[in-house]
């Protein structure tokens, strides 16, 4: 079984023993004499640094010809050093793994010094060794240490190669020590449980996930259904050399989104078909695989809700089985990084309410998209209109009963997690409160009401993210505003686009003051939002096309960016006239207040630097990585933002974007 508790790995103290580099390897080889020879095909990793501790990880696979016939527990020797050459080994201890954990191994090392780099490796018999990993500890709570982190999301193995990781690694190696990344915040979709046979446009993928051990194979795709299948995905994704190197170079702090289990899931329900399907066994298997392959601190955190994987019996009524699967692993947690940063990581899938409107509802009542009004009514439930919700919904030719009239308002976090998040933020003494939030907070509204001679209403592109839970967004923002909690920054992913903006308690209230700031990051490799929308418009919705893209001899222009920032009338005008200055004069999109930036055609990552006075963010957009490469692919452009620290009674003021290397449409210099 994996190590999940304090494992008596030793303390850095006057009693710690030291070995020279030559002596360390010799001593390790001697200790592992007659032990199985090991391979480490998925590399090494570390996670969730504390001021005095970190979780170390590897997968130690016995070589086929060295597995003892009666072996259950496989011995592995862990060494930790303050230097990469292992000139002095600070810790050497035998740990174990087994087939029960797919030969993954989690080793919690404490007694370390704050704000230090450490190096580690794992040894097996016959001189076998893992690669050397580098990790670090967090600064002490009173240490005024600038923080630089990378944030990333959505790394489909099949859609592209990992040029984003390669670029990040190369740039970090060339940087000065003060400018280097201290840790990576991964915001979910580390794997994709579904594997499509081709891209959406019918072209072949960049590379293929090998056949699942058990998975379901359908005409359009195949998907994971068992523990073996989810393990298979992590093994495949971690075969990539650039992802391996990133995990070996930096500690990762991770949460999950939906694809670690099932697309657009809630609790232990999958939503592939028309009706949600209870999948508790699959959810529990997905949880176990995540726990095995993602090094993090859960049960080691004292006084926090997080806990390690606990396989549960899945018996009884639906609600009982659902709850048991959800309870098998709890990952929301609070980490600290010196005086400047507290990190709150949330789980946006396991405790959420079902969607406020069923799949296909808009189409069933003749709407292009779900309207803002419908979502607000359905999500607020019995609290809408001060507790007087309408009996019917204001849509369609005839009365449609309001299905939410008697139910409580929706919640994306669940009440217990929501209270924990707000308490963590309001009690934090750090200058900045970083919310590791898998889903964007700003709503991405489509201001269809701006189209002349139409009866359309402002609508929302999709309701799986926070846009489908406006009641809880309002609740969170009002609490933070009333408690005068400042320095709250959300870093989010999921939408396959770069974006930045301020967030208030209501996007519908023009007088609502901004409370926090959200930066959402594009996918490392997953197909961009614009690409998906362009295909939808091209194939089945020609009336939608002018607000999504315009076409010329130079290719497609992502007019959807303009729809989000300046509104659909501006986007339509640009597509028909080509005059960007005239189009932008028609903006901004008043239904998206606070939205400062979108790059919906992007792949890439984000960089965030926090100090006592300000936050600086870079949204890095990469050149295409669909073909394999030798050197790291180039950067297409970088959007820079500055957010000064604000005080109680003040509002956040997001400055930017400013650009390096060009800019996405419509931030390019305007045409005539």
Outline the secondary-structure elements.
Layout: H1 21-31, E1 38-39, E2 44-47, E3 54-59, E4 61-62, E5 74-81, E6 89-97, E7 104-109, E8 117-123, E9 133-136, E10 147-152, H2 163-174, E11 183-186, E12 194-196, E13 216-217, E14 221-223, H3 227-237, H4 241-249, E15 252-254, E16 269-270, E17 277-278, H5 280-293, H6 318-327, E18 333-337, E19 341-345, H7 361-364, E20 370-371, H8 372-380, H9 384-387, E21 392-393, E22 400-401, H10 415-427, E23 432-436, E24 445-446, E25 459-460, H11 470-482, E26 488-492, E27 498-503, E28 516-520, H12 529-540, E29 550-552, E30 555-557, H13 560-565, H14 568-577, H15 580-585, E31 595-599, E32 604-610, E33 614-622, E34 635-644, E35 655-660
Parallel strand pairs: 10-11, 11-15, 19-23, 23-26, 26-28
Antiparallel strand pairs: 1-4, 2-3, 3-7, 5-6, 5-8, 8-9, 10-32, 12-14, 13-14, 16-17, 18-19, 20-25, 21-22, 24-25, 27-28, 27-31, 29-30, 32-33, 33-34, 34-35
Overview of this structure, please?
There is one protein chain. This protein is of the alpha+beta class. Helices cover 21% and strands 23% of the residues. It has 15 helices and 35 strands. The strands form 10 sheets. The chain has a 7-stranded mixed sheet with strand order 15-11-10-32-33-34-35, covered by helices on one side. It has a 7-stranded mixed sheet with strand order 18-19-23-26-28-27-31. Strands 6-5-8-9 form a 4-stranded antiparallel sheet. The longest helix is centred in the middle third of the chain and has 14 residues, at 280-293. It is globular and about 85 Å long. The N and C termini lie far apart (66 Å). Mean pLDDT is 92; it is low at 1-23.
């Amino acid at each position: 079984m994996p190590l999940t508790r304090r494992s008596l790995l030793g303390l850095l103290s006057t009693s710690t023993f030291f070995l020279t580099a030559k002596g360390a390897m010799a001593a390790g080889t001697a200790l592992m004499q007659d032990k199985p020879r090991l391979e480490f095909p998925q590399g090494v990793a570390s996670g969730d640094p504390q001021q005095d501790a970190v979780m170390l990880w590897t997968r130690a696979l016995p070589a086929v010809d060295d597995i003892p016939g009666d072996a259950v527990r496989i011995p592995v020797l862990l060494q930790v050093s303050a230097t990469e050459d292992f000139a002095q080994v600070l810790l050497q201890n035998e740990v174990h793994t087994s087939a029960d954990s797919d030969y993954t191994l989690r080793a919690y090392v404490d007694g370390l010094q704050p704000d230090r780099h450490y190096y580690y490796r794992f040894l097996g018999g016959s001189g076998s060794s893992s690669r050397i990993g580098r990790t670090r500890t967090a600064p002490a709570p009173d240490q005024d240490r600038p923080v630089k982190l990378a944030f990333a999301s959505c790394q489909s193995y099949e859609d592209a190669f990992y040029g984003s990781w390669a670029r990040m690694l190369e740039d970090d190696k060339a940087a000065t020590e003060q400018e280097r990344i201290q840790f990576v915040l991964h915001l979910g979709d580390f794997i994709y449980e579904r594997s499509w046979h081709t891209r959406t446009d019918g072209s072949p993928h960049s590379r293929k996930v090998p056949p699942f051990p058990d998975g379901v194979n359908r005409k359009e795709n195949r998907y994971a259904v068992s523990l073996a299948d989810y393990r298979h995905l992590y093994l495949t994704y971690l075969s990539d050399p650039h992802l391996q190197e990133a995990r070996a170079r930096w500690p990762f702090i991770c949460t999950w989104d939906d694809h670690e289990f099932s697309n657009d899931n809630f609790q232990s329900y999958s939503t592939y078909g028309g009706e949600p399907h209870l999948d508790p066994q699959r959810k529990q298997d997905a949880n176990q695989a995540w726990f095995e392959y993602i090094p993090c601190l859960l049960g080691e955190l004292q006084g926090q809700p997080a806990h390690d994987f606990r396989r549960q019996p899945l018996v009884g009524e639906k609600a009982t089985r659902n709850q048991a699967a959800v309870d098998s692993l709890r990952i929301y947690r609070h980490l600290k990084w010196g005086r400047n940063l507290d990190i709150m990581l949330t789980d946006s899938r396991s405790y959420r309410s079902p969607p406020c409107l069923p799949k296909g509802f808009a189409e069933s009542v003749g709407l292009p998209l779900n309207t803002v009004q419908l979502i607000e009514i359905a999500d607020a439930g019995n609290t809408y209109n001060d507790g007087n919700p309408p009996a019917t919904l204001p849509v369609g030719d005839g009365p449609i009963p309001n299905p939410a009239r008697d139910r409580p308002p929706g919640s994306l976090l669940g009440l217990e997690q929501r209270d924990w998040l707000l308490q963590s933020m309001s009690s934090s003494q750090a200058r900045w409160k970083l919310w590791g939030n898998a889903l964007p907070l700003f709503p991405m509204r489509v201001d269809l009401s701006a189209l002349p001679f139409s009866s359309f209403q402002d609508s929302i592109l999709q309701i799986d993210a926070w846009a489908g839970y406006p009641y809880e967004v309002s609740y969170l923002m009002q609490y933070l505003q009333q408690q005068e909690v400042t320095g709250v920054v959300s870093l989010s992913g999921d939408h396959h686009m770069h974006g930045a903006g301020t967030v208030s308690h209501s996007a519908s209230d023009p007088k609502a003051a901004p409370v926090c700031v959200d930066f959402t990051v594009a996918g490392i490799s997953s197909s961009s939002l614009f690409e998906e929308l362009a295909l939808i418009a091209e194939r089945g919705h020609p009336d939608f096309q002018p607000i999504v893209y315009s076409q010329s001899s130079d290719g497609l222009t992502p007019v959807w960016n303009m729809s989000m920032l300046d509104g659909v009338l501006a986007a339509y005008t640009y597509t028909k006239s080509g005059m960007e200055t005239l189009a932008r004069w028609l903006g901004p999109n008043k239904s998206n207040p606070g939205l400062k930036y979108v790059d919906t055609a992007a792949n890439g990552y984000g960089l965030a630097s926090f100090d006592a006075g300000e936050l600086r963010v870079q949204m890095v957009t990469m050149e295409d990585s669909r073909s394999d490469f030798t050197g790291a692919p180039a950067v297409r452009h970088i959007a820079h933002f500055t957010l000064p620290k604000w005080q109680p009674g003040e509002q956040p003021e997001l400055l930017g974007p400013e650009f390096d290397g060009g800019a996405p449409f419509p931030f390019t210099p305007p045409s005539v």
